[in-house]
Amino acid sequence: MPLSAPMSEVPVPLRVFVAGATGVVGRALLPRLRERGHHVTALVRQAGRLEGGDLVDAVAVADVMDPRRLRRVVQESAPDVVVCQVTAFRHPDFDVALHRTSRLRDAGTRNLVSAAVSAGARRIIIQSMAAAYCPHGHDVLDEEAPLWTEAPGRWGEAVRAVAAMEDAVLTCPNIEGIALRYGALYGPRTWYAPGGTIHEKVRGSALPLVDDGVGLTSFTHTEDAAGVVLEMLTGGDPGAYNVVDNEPAESMEWLPAYARIVGGPAPVSLTLDQARTQLDWLTVHQLTEQRGATNFRLRETLGWRPAWPSWREGFASLCGLWPG
């Protein structure tokens, strides 16, 4: 299975500034940038945090929440393209991680857009999420579907941050903005990898099914996410793109299959009333009403084909059960 489906033939070396270089997509992206011959500056919050320093040409130390220092290091790197893959999902407490990620995506992205414009960058590419769509209408949604900014609780805060982030990037007149709406990210070091949060929950029978649950999840392998970032350095019109595989899956389908792949017990089944009593609101939403996304725009406008078109093979590969 190839790492990605190629979309461009002759890469043009660029100066690329990568925020979030130590994240799951950033780690997959750096070696690809090196292979293409791009000049890469990686942004880290603390010196010495970047593994694989031989994959970058420079390391900038700054926090995206510190606009003054951020502007200085971005200007010093003189990028053609700025890539933002910043989240806080490493934090073990999901509520805290979601809140911090919301702040990074709102204020942090606005700081990065301002810095990119001041540095003369021509394009900025950000990480967004397909799970932010309002769960109404068609089962599989395209980029024109509304984001669920009126969702309750922390999830509503997260979606509003996504909307603000995308607005800052896509409406700025001085730079080309691209928002890549990933599905549920899986791959090395993600929650679905051995030892990850979802992996451990499923092996411990802590993630149940909900009777008649028709929540849809669109998945994205980190290698496919990195591959699209790479091609978007020079390809594609400004705008939002769903970066998901070809097979949105109901929870009743993917969760038992994943449990078998990781060697866990069959998920227990709850009624909707039981689920609402025993599980947090967001998990119930994901299992019962979340909608999937279509990658039609990306496929038709850029000829993109995911290297991992189905989560089935992707999960198997992640757990060492896929040949090659």
From TrEMBL:
InterPro entries: Epimerase_deHydtase (IPR001509), NAD(P)-bd_dom_sf (IPR036291), NAD(P)-dependent_oxidoreduct (IPR051783). GO terms for cellular component: cytoplasm. GO terms for molecular function: aldehyde dehydrogenase (NAD+) activity. Residues 16-243 form the NAD-dependent epimerase/dehydratase domain. It comes from the Bacteria. It holds the Pfam family Epimerase. This is dTDP-glucose 4,6-dehydratase. It comes from Saccharopolyspora erythraea (strain ATCC 11635 / DSM 40517 / JCM 4748 / NBRC 13426 / NCIMB 8594 / NRRL 2338).
